[in-house]
Amino acid sequence: MERKIITTGDGSKTIQISDWDEQYHSKHGAVQEAYHVFIKHGLSLFFGKNIHILEIGFGTGLNALITRIESKKNPTEITYRGVEAYPVSPEELEQLNYISELKAEEFRSDFEKMHTAPWENDVRISENFLLKKEQKFFADIDDENVFDLVYFDAFGARVQPELWTEDIFSKMYCAMKKDGVLVTYAAKGSVRRAMLAVGFEVERLPGPPGKREMLRAKK
Ligand SMILES: C[S@@+](CC[C@H](N)C(=O)[O-])C[C@H]1O[C@@H](n2cnc3c(N)ncnc32)[C@H](O)[C@@H]1O
Predict the structure, then answer these.
(1) What are the φ/ψ torsions at residue 129 (nearest 5 degrees)?
(2) How many Å lie between the centroid of ligand 1 and the Cα of residue 103?
(3) pTM for the full predicted model
(4) Is 137 in the pocket of ligand 1 (CB under 6 A)?
(5) What is the distance between the alpha carbons of residues 190 and 138, in angstroms, rounded to a whole number?
(6) Is 29 in the pocket of ligand 1 (CB under 6 A)?
(7) pLDDT in tens, the chain (219 residues)
(8) Is the Cβ atom of 85 under 6 angstroms away from ligand 1?
(9) How many angstroms separate the first and last alpha carbons of the chain?
(10) Measuring from atom 18 of ligand 1, which residue has the nearest CA?
């Protein structure tokens, strides 16, 4: 499927799948959305701790980058697993502008390391950030009691309904530790009901600009 780079409302770029009219991030602002959903309502609950994060859809690495930045500012030990079936190409990466938009020159080499890190290996990105990227399908995740925090960042249910089902959320539930938290930009009733059905407690929270609500689930 054809992927192209577009500029979102806050000036940061993202990738668009033209055939699906679907983006890797919100058209209203990629950086803005990522900070709101995954940092403000996710990572910040764990500042000062030692945690394992699972990202559903490593994609451009934006969530990993902002996690590295914020975990340095608010000292937190991160072990990060990024699962992705269709990695972004070096040509696509070159066109993204996250380091300049975030004024994060200090983290440029960490971001490069994240992308050049070999798949399926533990790679130390910095003193507080260990990364393992796994190239596989979400349906093949079979960890048990490992993760404190899940960034659930799959494409929307409109285009990939099979990723927002009880089957997938029960895999997430199983992969998480007790009291673990899953955050997602999605707010659909059917998604919330699938989360509840597998045992999560679910909260509706204010969404990022352009979106009324988002969901946060707790094991
Ligand atoms: C919304 S994008 C993720 C954006 C990413 N978190 C970022 O910050 O760039 C969804 C990602 O899921 C990946 N993907 C789609 N279907 C998948 C599947 N069944 N298994 C694994 N990865 C999948 C896509 O290639 C894409 O990178």
Answers:
(1) -140, 110
(2) 25
(3) 0.98
(4) yes
(5) 19
(6) no
(7) 899 999 999 999 999 999 999 999 999 999 999 999 999 999 999 999 999 999 999 999 999 999 999 999 999 999 999 999 999 999 999 999 999 999 999 999 999 999 999 999 999 999 999 999 999 999 999 999 999 999 999 999 999 999 999 999 999 999 999 999 999 999 999 999 999 999 999 999 999 999 999 999 999
(8) yes
(9) 35
(10) 137
